[in-house]
Structures are given as C-alpha cells and as structure tokens.
Amino acid sequence: MWVWQLVLAVGFGIGSAVIPVMNAEAYVLGVGVSGALNPVVAAVGVAIGQTIGKLAMFLAVRYRPGYAARKTKEPKPVDLDTRRGRLIQWNRDISKRLLDALSDRKWGIPVTWLSAFVGIPPLYGVAIIGGASRMGIATFTLSVLTGRAARFVLLALGVGLF
User: Fold this and answer.
1) What secondary structure does DSSP assign to 41-64, as a single string?
2) How far apart are CA 143 and CA 98, in angstroms?
3) pLDDT value at 107 more than 80
4) In Å, what is the CA distance from 26 to each residue of 3, 23, 30, 44, 74?
5) What are phi and psi of 118, to 5 degrees?
6) Is pLDDT larger for residue 74 or for residue 146?
7) What is the number of other CB atoms lying within 10 angstroms of the CB of residue 122?
8) Helix, strand, or coil here: 66?
9) Which of 6, 53, 57, 71 could form an S-S bond across to 127 if both were Cys, CB 3.0 to 4.6 Å?
C-alpha cells in the first residue's frame, strides 16, 4: 500500500521541482491533514522527487549544447544611474558570488544544503547556478536529498502532532 503512495509523491516531487507553482510543502501538509496517506512516506517521496527534478535542472545546465566550447564574453555595460541598471548589476553580483560559493569545496555543500532545507537562497536558482559551477554531481545530489528530506519529514511530523 505504501509503494503507490511513494510513487505518487515522487511524481509530484519531480513536477514541483521544475514547475514553481506546484508547492511541495502544501502537498505534504495536505497529505498529513487529510489522513488518507502516510505523511512521512509522502515526505520522503517528495524529497526524492524534488532531488530528481533539481538534478535534472543541474545536468541540463551542465551539459547544455555548446557549453564546453563557449567562450566567456564580457556582459554588456549597464547604466548605474538608472534603477534598472542598478538592479541588473546587483543581480550579476549576487549570481557571481553564488557561483563562486558553489564552486568552492568549503562553501558548496553548506550553501546547497541550506538552500534545500531552509529555502534561502532559493533552490531553483542554486540548481541552475550549481550546474554552471565546478560542484560535483554526487555532492549536489546528496546535499539536496538530505536537505529536502529533513525539511519535508520535519514538516510531516509536525502535521502528525495535530
């Protein structure tokens, strides 16, 4: 009986990993409140599915066509006197810092795990930027899986208290 619950949760997790409007937390809460399914099984399934989906995004960036032969080019200059120009520059600075952090052995795992567990920085962006970094595939996968599993299992256990 729990196998189909796990398969259903994995499927929802994959969908919610790549489609931002599908909320995995709401799924786990709904399963827990309804009592129709085991919330811990659903939480584990959603964590596995989210990991598969984020890994697919990571690999899509890492192995996109022309990535290896791509020459780095300088970004277009922006006018820092305008609000739009400052926003573009701020976005570039944040992306560069995150790329550097994910490429560093000391910071890559904690940043990815914190993103998976807490949601800051958003895991969607970390998966995309992580694919462009030097982070290993196994490191990324294990960080996301443990962070997501901890987040969803704690959420499921919290719902089970009521």
Assistant:
1) HHHHHHHHHHHHHHHHHHHHHHT-
2) 16
3) yes
4) 21, 5, 6, 14, 42
5) -95, -35
6) 146
7) 11
8) coil
9) 57
